[in-house]
Each structure stands twice: as C-alpha cells, then as structure tokens.
Amino acid sequence: MVLDPADPTQVLSLSILIEGDDRAVKDPTRVHQPDNLESTANGLLITEDPGSSQQFPFGSDTAGSSNFDANATTARLMQYRFAGPGVVTPAAKVNQSADEGPTDVDGQSGVFAPGNLGAWESSGVVDASSVFGPGAFLIDVQAHTLWVEKAPGDDNFPPAGPDFTFKREGGQLILLHIPGA
Length: 181
Description:
mainly beta, 2 helices
C-alpha cells in the first residue's frame, strides 16, 4: 500500500504481494486461508487456518492409499523471504498424528478415521527472538478434532450431545527456530 505523503489517510495504490489459494483445485504451493502474519527483517511468516474448503480426508496424502491426493496437506506455517524468487514455502507443517490416539477422549476412536487433514490450524505466530535468540518464534496449534476433556454424554454431534458442546480441545504452544527468518 502506498500512502499519500501529504495525506497518509489517502491510499495512492494497492498491490497484492502474495496470492492465496482461490482456485477450485487445491494448490499446495499457495497459502490456504491465511490467519496470522509475523514480519521480520528478512520476510513474512503466515499461519494457515485451512477451513472446510481446504480439508482432505485423513490418509489422502499417503501414496498408495485409495483416496490419494497429491495436493493434500495439513495446516502449515508458510514463509515468504524478501530476498529471493518471491515464492511462499512451508517453514513447518502441522502434525495431526495424535488424533484418535491415547489422549483423544472424543469417544470416536476405532469408530471413525482421524479428522480431515487441515482440521487443525496453525495460529498466532509471534517473534520470540528477544527471549529465545535469533530465529525463535512462538506459534500455537489448535487441534480441533483432538478432545482432551469432555462432558459426560452421548457422542453425538450438534445439535445433540453435551460432550460436543462442553469439550476441551488439544493444542500446543510451540517454540520454533527458523534460521535466517
């Protein structure tokens, strides 16, 4: 955005630096529903909240599976470097392997496959280099299909089922080091 130096409330021009995934075919080389942004001297870090339009059935990223999709991915932390070819690349990828594991109390273990890839989101990336050193960032993962606590009741989805309404999802606060970020 270029502001008018005489009146900074006026925008002289606006251009797009990074194009998100707006295609009908999901594109793993693009950002899927950007959620948060952190800027550094060398570039940008962008979290993804893939949402329903960027979710893939569990296992669809595994070659040889019956529903293999080469574009399938979980949420990622994407990086754009100011110096370079001007592309966005994954700096980190959310690992959803705890879904339906021993800490998951949603009652669905063995009944359904783990949640869709992209059901978990990366969020809230913050520069933590002043405390943890150069290239340190705090980021959280919101594990929407990993329930670590729930109210008693039937495992029904809305509108019925107290366990769906009163639940505590899993998640992580991660200290991540990205050299040169």
